């Protein structure tokens, strides 16, 4: 994307690889396969975004589905298949909790993109996006739950559900603010930044990984 300081896409790229690294640290098996799958997915999405495919926004179904639907289907498959559930139940809760730290640099990137008129204000923590709460509280939850061991399953579940709601809020806001036949918000400054590399990695990789981390954690805690 033109006219952006180099540090904005750099932080976005580093945030993506941080999310992948922390997720793979939580995995007890198939780590090489996960690396290969996620890197290939990032490369494919980078190529698609470079082609300008996502910038065509006046069609139905929205082309943006190509970035978000495959990860959503993969997450669904993990929960409905016995092999997938076994994988989910083997993920390390400590690493899954720390993974949410990635939401801090992501929120900073969104603020920068707003300042350069690539996303609307309502997608930032100066608007209606409070997802940075999840990133800021993740190390505290980690410390209290796994170091001090002073909070139990109930608090962990409550925190994950609250953060899941915050994630759903920004995802729905981003979708309804993007230029498409489905757009409902931010017509004066639509959400166009995520159609470009490397910002396409936010909806196609970081959001699904964060979502899976919450769902996997909730499943494990409820099984206790």
Mean pLDDT: 93
What is the number of E strands?
A: 0
| Unreliably modeled segments | none
Discrete helix count: 9
Main β sheet profile = none
Q: What is the helix content?
A: 55-70%
Describe the structure.
The protein is an all-alpha fold. Helix 6 packs antiparallel against helix 7. The longest helix has 25 residues. The model has no long low-confidence stretch (mean pLDDT 93).
Features:
9 helices
Summarize, please.
The protein has 224 residues and is mostly helical.
Fold blueprint:
Elements (H helix, E strand, L loop, with lengths): L6 H20 L4 H20 L14 H16 L1 H8 L3 H6 L4 H13 L16 H16 L5 H25 L23 H23 L1
């Amino acid at each position: 994307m033109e006219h952006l300081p180099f540090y904005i896409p750099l932080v976005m790229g580093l945030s993506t690889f941080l999310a992948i690294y922390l997720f793979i640290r939580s995995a007890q098996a198939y780590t090489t396969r996960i690396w290969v799958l996620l890197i290939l997915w990032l490369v494919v999405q980078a190529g698609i975004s470079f082609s300008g495919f996502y910038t065509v926004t006046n069609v139905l179904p929205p082309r943006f589905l190509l970035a978000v639907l495959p990860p959503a289907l993969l997450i669904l498959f993990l929960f409905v298949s016995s092999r997938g559930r076994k994988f989910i139940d083997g993920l390390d809760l400590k690493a899954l909790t720390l993974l949410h730290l990635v939401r801090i640099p992501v929120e900073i990137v969104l603020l920068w993109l707003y300042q350069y008129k690539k996303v609307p204000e309502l997608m930032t923590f100066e608007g209606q996006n409070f997802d940075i709460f999840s990133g800021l509280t993740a190390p505290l939850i980690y410390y209290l739950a796994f170091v001090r061991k002073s909070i139990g399953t109930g608090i962990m579940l409550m925190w994950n559900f609250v953060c899941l709601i915050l994630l759903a809020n920004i995802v729905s806001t981003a979708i309804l603010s993007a230029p498409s036949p489905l757009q409902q918000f931010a017509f004066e400054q639509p959400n166009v930044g995520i159609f470009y590399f490397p910002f396409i990695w936010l909806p196609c990789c970081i959001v699904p990984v964060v979502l899976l981390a919450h769902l996997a954690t909730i499943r494990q805690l409820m099984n206790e």
